[in-house]
Design goal:
By secondary structure, the protein is α+β, with helices and mostly antiparallel strands. It is 33% helix and 23% strand. A hairpin with a 3-residue loop joins strand 3 and strand 4.
Length: 236
C-alpha cells in the first residue's frame, strides 16, 4: 500500500507471493480464513500452498519441486524447538516440545514420572491431550497459573504432587489479524460445540484491532506516537 502511494510506477513490475504450508490464519474460524484469503487475493497477493525446501539467491524452492523467482524474501514462519530443550532430561512431545501434564509439570525422561517441582509453559511446552496454539495469551495465562501454584505451594511448605490440585484451564479470549488498511478479521471466544462466539470483518474489525493494539502499549506517550504514525501514513 505504501509503495502504491509513493512509487506507483514501480508497483507495475512487482508481485507479492505468500507461501503457506498449512492453512492461512489456521487458528481462525473457517469463514474468516476464506475472507482473509479473498481480500489478499483481491489486493494482488498470490497465495501459494506449499512447504519451503530451501532458499537460494534468486528463488524459493518448494518441497514439490516448484521454484518461485524472488527479489526480496520476508521470512515470518514460526520457530521450532531449540537444541537446549532437547538436551534437558525431560520427555518431549511429538513436535519436539517439552511434554507437560494438566498442571504444566514436565516428565522425567528416564523414568516417565512427573517432576512435581519443574514446570514448562508457553511455546516450549505441549500437552498432547489438550494441545494449544502458540499464542501470547496462552503463555500469559499459563504464567499466571504457575505463579499462583508456586505461591500456594510455597505457603504450604514445598512442592508436592497432588492430583486433586487445580489444573490449567485455557480461556480463549479471541484472535485478531490485520489484512490491509480498513480490513481485518476478529474472532472472540469459543463455543463448547466448536466455532467462534463472535466474528467480525471489514472496517469495524480493523478499527477494533487498532484500538486493542493501542491498549497493549505501556504508556500514553507510546499510544499517542503510534496513533500519530498511523494517521500520517494514511494521509500522506
Amino acid at each position: 500500500e505504501t509503495m502504491r502511494k509513493a512509487h506507483p510506477e514501480a508497483c507495475a513490475d512487482m508481485k507479492v507471493t505468500l507461501i503457506e504450508a498449512n492453512e492461512l490464519l489456521g487458528s481462525f474460524d473457517g469463514s474468516l480464513r476464506k475472507y482473509a484469503a479473498s481480500k489478499l487475493t483481491q489486493g494482488g497477493v498470490d497465495i501459494v500452498k506449499g512447504i519451503v525446501q530451501r532458499v537460494t539467491d534468486g528463488a524459493v524452492e518448494l518441497k514439490d519441486g516448484t521454484a518461485i523467482p524472488t527479489g526480496l524474501i520476508v521470512w515470518s514462519t514460526g520457530v521450532g524447538p531449540t537444541p537446549f530443550m532437547s538436551s534437558l532430561p525431560f520427555m518431549l512431545s511429538k513436535g519436539g516440545r517439552l511434554a507437560v501434564n494438566d498442571r504444566l509439570n514436565v516428565f522425567d525422561k528416564a523414568t516417565g514420572e512427573v517432576c512435581a517441582d519443574v514446570f514448562a509453559l508457553g511455546d516450549c511446552a505441549s500437552n498432547s491431550e489438550t494441545p494449544l496454539p502458540p499464542l501470547a495469551q496462552v503463555a500469559e495465562q499459563q504464567g499466571k497459573f504457575v505463579a499462583k501454584l508456586l505461591n500456594a505451594e510455597a505457603r504450604e511448605g514445598g512442592f508436592r504432587l497432588d492430583e486433586s490440585a487445580s489444573t490449567f484451564k485455557y480461556l480463549h479470549l479471541g484472535s485478531m489479524a490485520a489484512l490491509t488498511t480498513g480490513e481485518a478479521v476478529i474472532e472472540l471466544g469459543k463455543k463448547d460445540s466448536g466455532g467462534s462466539l463472535l466474528t467480525m470483518t471489514g472496517i469495524s474489525s480493523w478499527l477494533a484491532w487498532r484500538s486493542a493494539y493501542l491498549t497493549r502499549l505501556g504508556t500514553w506517550r507510546s499510544r499517542f506516537h503510534v496513533a500519530m504514525d498511523w494517521l500520517t501514513s494514511m494521509v500522506f
